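Final report, closing paragraph on structural work. Over the funding period we assembled a curated collection of sequence-structure pairs, and we close with a single example.
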Amino acid sequence: MLALTGETRRWEPKRLRLRLFSAAAHLVTTGRRRWLRLGRHWPWTPIITTAFDRLQALPNPD
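Its predicted structure, as stored:
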C-alpha cells in the first residue's frame, strides 16, 4: 500500500489481487539478474511500474 496512490490505494483486497497479482508478465533470468517483464497490453502495467519506482525511491531502513 506504500507504493500505490490515488484511487488504487483504496482498492479492496480482491480487486488488488485481480489487477496487480494476475499481471501478464515473464520472469527472465539473464546472467545473475532477474527481470520482471510486464506485458505492454496489460491495462494496469503503468500502475505496477509506478509502484515499483516508488518502492525503490524509499530510503533503505539500515
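Strands lie at 25-30, 33-38. The chain has two helices and two strands. We thank the funder for supporting this effort.
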